[in-house]
Every structure is written in C-alpha cells, then in structure tokens.
C-alpha cells in the first residue's frame, strides 16, 4: 500500500461559510508543509483528513482508501491536534497504555512499543510522572508518541510548535524530520520558520483556497527567504 494522500476538489462548508474551497493536493512520503495565516482553513483540512469532520464535496483518498471508510483510514493516520490534552491525572505510561488499549493493541505490543516511543521522544525518564506535571514541550512530545502508537503511515500535526521556546521548537522539528524518513508527515502551521527548516514540498492556503503547491524552493524563487516570498504572495492574493 503506497503512502499517499490524494485530495481532489475538496470543499467544506459550515452553514453558509465556506471553510475550504476546491482544494486539490497530492501528498507523498516525506515532510509536507501546509502554510497559512490563522483562519486560512488549515485546521479544517487537517480534521477532514483525520476523519474528524465530514467533507461537503470533492474526494479524498488515503493510501488508496476513500475517506468515507473512516475506520480503515484511522488505522493509517496519527493525529496531533493544536490543542492536545490527555488524561492529566494519569501517569505518562498509564495514559499511553490506555490509548494503546483503545487502539486495540495487544498487551505484548503495548509493553514493547510504549517504552520505545517514549525513549524516541526523550520522555523515557517520565514514565511515572503525571501528565499534568509535564511542560508544554514535553506534552507536545507525548502527543507525538501517542500519535505513533499504532505505527501509522501518515502523521498529521497541527501547529505543533506554537507557544514553545526556540530550543524546544528546534528539538521538535528535528524529531518530525526523523519520523518523516519512512512515512508522510504533514506539518500545518502559520510559523514560516518551521516550514522553511523542515519541508521540501509545501502548499499555501488562504481563505480556504490553495494559492500555491509545489517545491519550497520554487515558491521562494528569487526572494531572500520563505518569509519574504510568503508575504509577497499574500499581498498579491489580497489584490
């Protein structure tokens, strides 16, 4: 089964408001950046891909499976939402173990995967800590661990570095790049630097529409960096 997402003329409306309009994308393995200002429709798109929202029109297939087959699609996707919260009164290990049970992982699989994942996100010394005692950066790393628990082919992360200090943001970006070596990682953010440091292919979303998709370097072109190219594109789109 080839890891890929094909989005064709996707639309999503809430009443009379169009949150996504005629969105078409082809996403393949590696880091894929979805860039747009707050309110551009990024979170709506991520939630449709994660089968948490129903689309209004168009089609989406995940690894060849139509998005309507939500139970099968969820087996392929790990999702870290922007506002991640998880059983604050539980210990880190207990919370992961409970999520493993919900994912229908066997006891043997949970016993093997949970310590390995916590080590990968540098939380191996926090097994007995309660989730509410973790810092913001540690909670985000726990969020990645829980999203990878069922070994998905696709990882979707929505605004993962917002609110983190610069050092923690760098560690988090490096972790995502490691994870993307053998799967699709979609990084949705309004923070230009996160895209510039991690992604080779991007899409730019504004007012629910894709205004650019392709190679990062082609988008930058002759500009001095992604920030300048992005601001210039946004200015042109407003006219």
Automatic annotation (TrEMBL):
UniProt keyword list: ATP-binding, Nucleotide-binding, Transport
Entry superkingdom: Bacteria
Pfam families linked: ABC_tran (PF00005)
Domain ABC transporter: 5-232
Keyword ATP-binding: yes
GO-annotated molecular function: ATP binding; ATP hydrolysis activity
Gene3D superfamilies in the record: P-loop containing nucleotide triphosphate hydrolases
Family: Belongs to the ABC transporter superfamily.
PANTHER family xrefs: ABC TRANSPORTER, ATP-BINDING PROTEIN (PTHR43335)
Protein's recorded name: ABC transporter domain-containing protein
Species assigned in the record: Paenibacillus albidus
Lineage per the UniProt record: Bacteria, Bacillati, Bacillota, Bacilli, Bacillales
